């Protein structure tokens, strides 16, 4: 994929494929996957992943030993999508509205303008706590900050049962 197009945005920036190396403000794969950038913030929950793309909300797509997965930044849950990149691309093309957040990206940018490079839309009320997939619940945030922010949430709720009440401690 990177041989044909070395990093790009698609579906009105709803899908971001990282380039193989940083170019200007665009962060490359090695930098994005550097443990000290944000991966270590998940305290081991993201260690087996090599992240290569993200949706409009900062949900990651990653390579693992047996295929391509989605990675939920609020819970660190990985969901298997395909054994290979070709299958992943087909899945994305067949369900891009859901898998990339395209309708929200389109609506946001029509109302607020184009998102800056390296910026994702983050929910004000996290999705995992019932936040809505609506533009009123979104704000733009630099991708690295959004991953740290949500790693904080993921590590606090990782051992809680579904439906448990939480008090979210926001740590700088």
Structural commentary:
This protein is α+β, with helices and mostly antiparallel strands. The protein has one domain. It has helices spanning 29-32, 85-94, 96-100, 102-112, 143-157; strands at residues 8-10, 15-17, 50-54, 60-64, 67-71, 78-82, 119-123, 138-142. Strand 1 (8-10) and strand 2 form a beta hairpin.
Outline:
The protein has 172 residues and is of the alpha+beta class. 26% of the residues lie in helices and 21% in strands.
Structural features:
5 helices; 6-stranded antiparallel sheet; alpha+beta; 172 residues
In spatial order, strands of the major sheet run 1-2-3-4-5-6
* Helix run count: 5
Structural class based on helices, strands and sheet pairing: alpha+beta
- Rg from C-alpha positions? 15 Å
Major β-sheet annotation: 6 strands, antiparallel
Q: What is the chain-wise order of helices and strands?
A: EEHEEEEHHHEEH
The average pLDDT value, as a whole number, equals: 92
Organism: Chitinimonas arctica
Protein name: SMI1/KNR4 family protein
List the topology elements.
Layout lengths: L7 E3 L4 E3 L11 H4 L17 E5 L5 E5 L2 E5 L6 E5 L2 H10 L1 H5 L1 H11 L6 E5 L14 E5 H15 L15
Antiparallel strand pairs: 1-2, 2-3, 3-4, 4-5, 5-6, 7-8
């Amino acid at each position: 994929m990177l041989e044909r197009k070395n990093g790009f945005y698609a579906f009105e920036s709803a899908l971001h494929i990282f380039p193989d190396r940083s170019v200007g403000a665009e962060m490359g794969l090695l930098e994005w996957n550097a443990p000290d950038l944000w991966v270590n913030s998940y305290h081991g929950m993201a260690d087996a992943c090599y992240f290569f793309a993200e949706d409009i909300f900062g949900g990651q797509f990653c390579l693992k030993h047996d295929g391509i997965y989605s990675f939920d930044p609020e819970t660190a849950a990985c969901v298997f999508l395909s054994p290979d990149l070709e299958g992943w691309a087909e899945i994305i093309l067949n369900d891009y509205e859901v898998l990339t957040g395209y309708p929200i990206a389109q609506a946001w940018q029509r109302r607020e303008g184009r998102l800056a490079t390296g910026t994702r839309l983050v929910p004000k009320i996290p999705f995992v706590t019932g936040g809505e997939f609506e533009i009123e619940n979104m704000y733009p945030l630099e991708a690295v900050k959004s991953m740290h922010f949500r790693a904080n949430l993921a590590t606090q709720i990782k051992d809680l049962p579904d439906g448990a009440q939480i008090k979210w401690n926001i740590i700088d």
